[in-house]
Amino acid sequence: MESQSRVFAAIVPAGRELSGNEKEQGLEVRAVSRQSPGKCLREVQVTGTAEVRCQADRASVRVSVGNSKESVSEATHSVSRRLGYILQALRQHDIREENTSVRRFLHRDADMYRMDAEVIVTFSDFEKMERICSILLEKLDKSVSVGTPEFYHSAECLSQMRLRACVSAVENAQLKASKVSQLLGQSLGPPLLVREDETKEWRNNEDNGGGGQGSAAPSHFPSLPAVTASSQVSVSFSLRDTSRKMR
Q: 3-state class of 3 per DSSP?
C-alpha cells in the first residue's frame, strides 16, 4: 500500500521595505508532498498579508449667498446675480453640471424678504478647488460664504484599494513560494488554489502638523482622511522536481 509523506518548512522572512503604500505583514509557508492514486502530487501552501493605504479622492464644498430686500424682485435679483457669477466661475474651470447642485429659498423676515441660495460642488482636483474658492472669496467678498471642504472616498477609490490589497497579498505569496521551492530543489508550477481568508479596513486622519512637541498653533487646514485595507490570502502552487529534468 502506498504511504503518504509530508514535509513542513516554516520560513520567517526578514523585514523589508515595500514600495508605495503597500506593506507586507507576515508569511507562513508549508511545503507538502502527498501520494494520490496514479501520481505523486507535490504542492506548496502559502499564506500572505498585505496592506494598501488610500487618501480621500473627493471633496465637497458648500458655497452660499443671501440678501434681504424690501421686495421679492429685489431680493431675487440681488442673489441671482451672485449665484450666476458662482456658476460661471465653475463652468470656466471645467466643473461639470453633474458635480454641482443648487438650492434656493425665499422667505419673509419681519418686513423684509430674504433670498438664500447655496451651491454644493464636488471636486476631484483639490488644487482646482483651492483656486475656485479663492476667486469667489476675492470677487464676491462678504456677500459669499465658502464652507470648509469635506473630504471623502469615492466608491471607485475604495474598490480599487481593496483590489490592490488582495493582488499585493497574492504577489507576496507567490514570491515567497518561489523562494521556498528553490530551497527545496523544486520549481514552482501553476497555482492550484487562491483563497482570500480575511479582509480588514480602518480609517484614520492625516496629521496636519499640529499637536507635536514644540509645534505652533493648531493648523486651520482640514484633515485629509485616509483608509487602509488589509488582505490575507492562502495560495497553493504545484511543484516540479527540477532534479528529474536534469537527468
A: coil
If asked whether residues 66 and 94 sit together in one domain, one would say: yes
Tens of pLDDT, residues 40-74:
668 889 999 999 999 999 999 999 999 999 999 99
Residue 75 maps to a domain: yes
Q: Are residues 132 and 68 in the same domain?
A: yes
Same domain for 189 and 77?
A: no
Q: 3-state class of 149 per DSSP?
A: coil
Q: Are residues 50 and 172 in the same domain?
A: yes
Contact indicator for 35, 4 with CB cutoff of 8 Å: yes
Sign of dihedral through CA atoms 19, 22, 26, 32? negative
Same domain? 71 vs 144: yes
Vertex 31: Cα angle to 189 and 17 (nearest 5): 80
pTM of the model: 0.72
pLDDT band of residue 20 (cuts 50, 70, 90) is very low
